[in-house]
């Protein structure tokens, strides 16, 4: 089975409902950074190479996230079509499948990844600041680093680390 490297940040399942007639069968996309607009077929819209993949040992791409997203989309597709016909799906599993799809639609975009990364960065910065303020915690941090390196840190390095 081929490695799914073309990964959509907005699923084709959703994009196909926004195709137009001018040009036929294409979705218009606006780039907020450049102000440019362009059209493309849904298969070539909101797609990036290995967006959800992580590089593993030996450079092999781990595509399990993309594979999971595909399963979620497959489960949600029939429910999506029912909703578009103006009907409410019956059955808790159908509703759960679509709720999972909606939740993933919210968190899978580049903007949400960037926001999460920025938030996590602020968390790490606050954590390191608090570790530097407490002598006991800082001492344990330095001891762990010294063990990992296999050699003691000199006084100057400890001062730079604390700062």
What does this structure look like?
This protein has 163 residues and is an alpha+beta fold. It has a domain of 54 residues. Helix content is 54%, strand content 14%. It is built from six helices and seven strands. The chain has a three-stranded antiparallel beta sheet, with no helix packed on it. Strands 1-5 form a two-stranded antiparallel ribbon. Helix 2 packs across helix 3. The longest helix is centred in the last third of the chain and has 24 residues. The protein is elongated. The termini are far apart. The relative contact order is 0.09. The model has no long low-confidence stretch (mean pLDDT 93).
Q: What percentage of amino acids are in beta strands? A: 5-15%
Strand order of the largest sheet: 2-3-4
Reading the helices and strands in chain order gives EHEEEEEEHHHHH
Radius of gyration, CA atoms, in whole angstroms: 23 Å
Helix content: 40-55%
Residue-averaged pLDDT: 93
Tally the beta strands: 7
User: Termini separation (Å)?
Assistant: 51 Å
Helix vs. strand class: alpha+beta
């Amino acid at each position: 089975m081929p490695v799914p490297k073309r990964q959509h940040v907005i699923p084709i399942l959703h994009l196909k409902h926004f195709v137009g007639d001018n040009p036929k069968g294409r979705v218009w996309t606006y780039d907020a950074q450049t102000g440019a607009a362009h059209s493309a077929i849904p298969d070539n819209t909101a797609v990036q190479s290995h967006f959800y993949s992580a590089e593993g040992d030996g450079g092999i791409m781990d595509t399990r996230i993309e594979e999971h997203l595909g399963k979620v989309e497959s489960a949600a597709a029939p429910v999506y079509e029912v909703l578009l016909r103006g009907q409410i799906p019956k059955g808790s599993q159908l509703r759960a499948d679509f709720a999972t799809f909606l939740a993933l639609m919210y968190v899978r975009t580049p903007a949400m990844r960037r926001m999460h990364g920025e938030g996590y960065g602020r968390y790490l910065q606050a954590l390191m600041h608090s570790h530097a303020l407490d002598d006991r915690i800082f001492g344990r941090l330095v001891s762990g680093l010294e063990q990992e390196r296999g050699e003691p840190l000199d006084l100057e390095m400890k001062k730079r680390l604390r700062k």
